[in-house]
Design a protein that fits this description.
alpha+beta, single chain, 14 strands, 251 residues, 6-stranded antiparallel sheet
């Protein structure tokens, strides 16, 4: 799977940008990265999100234990990979029917948050038990919601292209083609939102700090993000002010 979001929708962290990286390109220009993905994934589907970016999905060459799923409900798009263990409980929690699978559960969890659900975002992701990564794009509010499981069980990478657009994929090779050395594994146990940036759902009270990555040749190669045990966030609860307040604008 592949997602490229315009920096106006999802601005990649500055720390992902490797200094003097001349190998990055503009992943969105003329559909560059989407075409690269399609050329190596027969039968892939490309979803053009207009000025917001692109999504690509393919079911070929997937791990049967960590399948990829794609769905769109009410203009909420979701790419999901992996397996959730407590599906039955989550279906009951969100009032879903018996046929609902993981990707539908994630969409409903996001929609519950967006529409001012009773739980903070970190708890909603923490309630997903299993091996997973997912990318949600809400076309109505032009916002993203992205996460990976606490153990990093599913291959999942992110990077920044030459224009600062955010690139995400389960294949590091495709991320490298757009981002050069400005990429890294997506931080495990974390989630990313358009307005809130990167946060740890395992340690929601702590800040994250960037740790530069160095490749085998000794060159800077993006950054990993670690929980800073010494720092504490202020005001980590989900704002709920005004009956019309939209979570995606607040968090």
């Amino acid at each position: 799977m592949l997602a490229v979001f315009n920096k106006s929708v999802a601005k990649s962290p500055d720390a992902l940008q490797s200094p003097n990286d001349a190998s990055a390109v503009c992943a969105l220009k003329d559909g560059f990265l989407a075409k690269k993905f399609a050329s190596t994934h027969s039968g892939s589907v490309t979803i053009n999100l207009g000025d917001s970016g692109i999504l690509n999905y393919s079911s070929v060459r997937q791990n049967p234990l960590l399948p990829r799923l794609f769905s769109v409900v009410d203009d909420i798009f979701c790419l999901f990979q992996g397996h959730i263990e407590n599906v039955a409980h989550l279906k009951q929690q969100y009032g879903l029917n018996k046929t609902a699978n993981e990707v539908i559960i994630v969409i409903e969890a996001y929609r519950t948050l967006r529409d001012r659900g009773p739980y903070p975002a970190d708890q909603v992701v923490r309630d997903l038990h299993g091996k997973f990564s997912f990318i949600v794009y809400d076309n109505t509010s032009k916002t993203t919601f992205i996460a990976a499981d606490p153990d990093g069980s599913v291959p999942f990478f992110w990077g920044t292209d030459s224009e600062g657009h955010l690139v995400l994929s389960d294949e590091d090779d495709i991320v490298k083609q757009g981002c050069g050395k400005s990429f890294a594994p997506f931080p495990k146990g974390c989630f990313f939102t358009t307005s809130g940036g990167l946060r740890s759902y395992e340690h929601p009270l702590n800040e994250l700090k960037a740790v530069p990555r160095v490749d085998s040749s000794g060159e800077m190669c993006g950054a990993t993000f670690k929980v800073d045990a010494e720092s504490k966030k202020e005001g980590t609860g989900m704002p709920r002010v005004g009956s019309a307040a939209n979570w995606s604008d607040q968090y």
